[in-house]
Amino acid sequence: MSGRNNNKLPSNLPQLQNLIKRDPPAYVEEFLQQYNHYKSNMEIFKLQPNKPSKELAELVMFMA
């Protein structure tokens, strides 16, 4: 956790994705946090499929 600013990572998904690719074991918790956020957003989307979600689109790109 030295040098990482955990408050900024979840809001900057491309940066987090890059960090995960460079050092996967160091960012397991951050990935799981985003994965859980993705699952929650998917459930919301299933309830309102006609409502576009920029956040869900960003999370899908992060997971890809």
Summarize the biggest pleated sheet. Answer: none
Task: Tally the beta strands.
Answer: 0
Average residue-wise pLDDT: 86
Low-confidence stretches: none
Q: Give the topology string: H per helix, E per strand.
A: HHH
Radius of gyration: 13 Å
Strand content: under 5%
Quickly give the structural class. Answer: mainly alpha
Helix content: 55-70%
Q: Helical region count?
A: 3
The coarse overall form would be elongated
What quaternary form is this? single chain
Number of domains: 1
Spatial separation of the terminal alpha carbons: 25 Å
Core attributes:
64 residues; mainly alpha; 3 helices; elongated; nucleus; transport; protein transport; Protein SDA1
Q: Mind explaining what this structure looks like?
A:
This protein has 64 residues and is mostly helical. It has one domain (10-63). It has three helices and no strands. The longest helix is centred in the middle third of the chain and has 20 residues, at 28-47. It is elongated and about 35 Å long. Belongs to the SDA1 family. It is found in: Nucleus, Nucleolus. It comes from Mus musculus. Keywords: Nucleus, Protein transport, Ribosome biogenesis, Transport.
